[in-house]
């Protein structure tokens, strides 16, 4: 079954240019499928006023929804005129990420595309609380689109976890590589690179154990990671020069390599946990994401279930 045939674009209410919609149209031109431009809106002032009756408040909400629907239609008109199927839906909801996830489930969407804002000076991507909720809790992959032209010959960089002996990590690694290869083949025949980071020797161990040889330890760790990477690349017929096993923290290694390769997108896996139980999206991956300067695609395991209840964090 073809991937990404039912895309949901989370419209940015704060600007007239929509990079996420543009990226969805690009994907549609390569692989087909449907696009839904979706916007949850909410204005607290309409709910608070006591001068309006319930019917008047409802009418005002409908008026705002109609106005925003026409605003999106104006932005998408060029694509619609070109025959690209863009559905438009605006809903009244005070928690954007909940509205988006609910729409994904009800509409059986298989990809969310959302614009990632950029820090003007640092060029780093800035993620809002809504972005983080989607990355953690969305039942389908989330593509964070940077407002930046796709680099000429931009590569796809897949971050894999080579250190874990847990079966779910191996299965997730395989899913990341398989789906990225399928996407690259169908979209733009881009190169697919794999990256794994391994830790440096803890300083306290070298100090506390006089007979400890850091170089032997480092060689052993690197060797384990190289073997794991070799098995993975051979499984998917990836050339060795397209694989990278680097010493250091993932949050440093992955963004640095992405910049060096001029990658168009980094693909990460997450089991969607939060707090100290986070397997990859949590401490490590959130730091990786904070340092990226390109598009990001986050993919969950096959058996991932979105949380039935969401927390009470503030949203942007």
From TrEMBL:
<feature type="domain" description="UspA">
    <location>
        <begin position="4"/>
        <end position="146"/>
    </location>
</feature>
<feature type="domain" description="UspA">
    <location>
        <begin position="174"/>
        <end position="300"/>
    </location>
</feature>
<protein>
    <recommendedName>
        <fullName>Universal stress protein E</fullName>
    </recommendedName>
</protein>
<dbReference type="Pfam" id="PF00582">
    <property type="entry name" value="Usp"/>
</dbReference>
<dbReference type="InterPro" id="IPR006016">
    <property type="entry name" value="UspA"/>
</dbReference>
<dbReference type="GO" id="GO:0005737">
    <property type="term" value="C:cytoplasm"/>
</dbReference>
<keyword id="KW-0963">Cytoplasm</keyword>
<comment type="function">
    <text>Required for resistance to DNA-damaging agents.</text>
</comment>
<comment type="similarity">
    <text>Belongs to the universal stress protein A family.</text>
</comment>
